[in-house]
């Protein structure tokens, strides 16, 4: 796992977002075991308490679950994963639309730009 940390955001949030991204893109599948606190802390060279907080938040959001004596696993609940994916997509859209509006584009121009880009990207 490689994460370049941003000094402007708490590390535990960055790890959470990274893990959510791994889950919604299918790199971490439902039921997959995630690394232990110690393993991940060593790999990322950060304080284990930071990783512990990350995992606690992921558990609170029911994204991962702890199985007594076996470790932590990605939730098997497909609806939870779909909800996370939609939330992440909404964040991306919010940032994109805000950025385009700050550049002075109107709604119709934003829609046209998106449609044009999709068409360009889907051409063989």
Which helices and strands, and how do they pair?
Elements: H1 11-24, H2 37-44, H3 48-60, E1 64-67, E2 71-74, H4 78-102, H5 107-122
Helix pairs in contact: 1-3, 1-4, 2-3
What this model shows, in words?
The chain is mainly alpha-helical. 61% of the residues lie in helices and 6% in strands. A two-stranded antiparallel sheet has the order 1-2. A hairpin with a 3-residue loop joins strand 1 and strand 2. The mean pLDDT is 95.
CATH architectural group of the largest domain: Orthogonal Bundle
The helix/strand class is: mainly alpha
The arrangement of helices and strands along the chain is HHHEEHH
Number of domains: 2
> How many beta-strand segments?
2
Count of alpha and pi helical runs: 5
Distance from N terminus to C terminus (CA atoms, Å) equals 33 Å
Tell me the name of the CATH class of the largest domain: Mainly Alpha
Q: Report the mean per-residue pLDDT as an integer.
A: 95
Widest sheet, order of strands: 1-2
Shape: elongated
**Helix fraction?**
55-70%
Instruction: Determine the CATH topology of the largest domain.
Output: Arc Repressor Mutant, subunit A
């Amino acid at each position: 796992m490689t994460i370049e940390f941003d000094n402007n955001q708490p590390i535990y949030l960055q790890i959470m977002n990274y893990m959510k991204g791994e889950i919604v893109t299918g790199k971490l599948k439902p039921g997959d075991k995630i690394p232990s606190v110690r393993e991940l802390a060593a790999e990322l060279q950060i304080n284990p308490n930071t990783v512990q907080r990350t995992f606690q938040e992921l558990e609170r959001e029911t994204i991962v679950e702890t199985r007594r004596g076996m470790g932590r696993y990605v939730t098997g609940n497909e609806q939870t994963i779909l909800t996370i994916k939609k939330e992440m997509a909404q964040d991306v859209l919010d940032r994109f639309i805000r950025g385009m509006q700050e550049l002075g584009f109107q709604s119709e121009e934003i829609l046209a730009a998106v449609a044009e880009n999709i068409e360009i990207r889907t051409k063989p």
